[in-house]
Amino acid sequence: MVNGIAAWIALALALALQPKPAGELRSDNGSIERSAPELDDLVPSKARIEVLATGFGWSEGPVWIGQGGGYLLFSDVPANRIHRWTATEGASLFLHPSGGTVRAGFREPGANGLKPGGSTSILVADQGNRAIARLDLRTKAKRFLARRFKGKKFNSPNDLAVGPDGSIWFTDPPYGLEGINASPLKEQPVNGVYRLAPDGQVALVESGLRFPNGIAFSRDGATLYVSNSDPARAVILSYQVAADGALSRRRVFSDMTALAWKGLPGLPDGMTVDERGNLWATGPGGVHVFRPDGRELGLISTGAAISNCAFGGSDGRTLFMTSGNKVAAVQTKVRGAPHRLPPVTPRAPSS
């Protein structure tokens, strides 16, 4: 037993003394690995990852609100809460419950993905209410925009993005339900990707993914990105988007399956696009930074799974990352792509 312990100590020391990969910058809060020199144009050479707040069950859906001095909202999905963070006040409770009030049958009843909805509202992927909703930031009143497709309830909407025409696109895996795919509450036969049109009509646009999760549009709105958080097929897909919302030319933008099999923390999940069109996508190991052509430039890691990311801050160049029980940030040289907003006129929930 003593010899075994000594061997483990020797191995740990040997690993600790190994040189770090070229271009990798480490700190106590994570690391930044530069796979290509172009990352220097996006992330400062001396950038460090900063932990902003801790103590959450599973943080998700960061969104920066520019009004009121500027603040970050993010979800704690299992705790059914949305929190608010500012640089001067830290984190505080913003909304509870953030999602459904019925606990039976749900493993994660809270809100998940959050996106800007206008000057006074955000859009919410509401897992517990199995709906897409608009939340008024002042009154905290919620209005449901879509709750069903073909008369059946959604599984548990996870993330969302707004298209060039104001349509709301969202993913609907069963992660919010106890038993996931085996849940008796699951009504939809597929885990789909949907489009909520400005007229309130819902269309199923992708039915062939096991666990669709993060979703984002390219800067010009011509490409849709969807992540599949399936360990057996951990990929990010891209699609060409027609003016009427039809998808074509589906292809694998990035295959991260091998990284998932290596045991790196996380799976393809949330993502965001910067003002230059680069994709910042969570996956095994952290946030992967891609050129629009799919070439990877680097990896930002917190040492834990990262569920989602978003640009914001006083100058718009801070990348906020929700990572397990914490929220972290890193300074960049770019802002996020301009936000698209859906129509604000009232409409009846789609059925």
From TrEMBL:
It comes from the Bacteria. One of its GO terms (molecular function) is gluconolactonase activity. Signal peptide: none annotated. Gene3D superfamilies: TolB, C-terminal domain. Its EC number is 3.1.1.17. Keywords: Hydrolase. PANTHER family: LACTONASE DRP35, LIPOPROTEIN-RELATED. This is Gluconolactonase. The lineage of its organism: Bacteria, Pseudomonadati, Pseudomonadota, Alphaproteobacteria, Sphingomonadales.
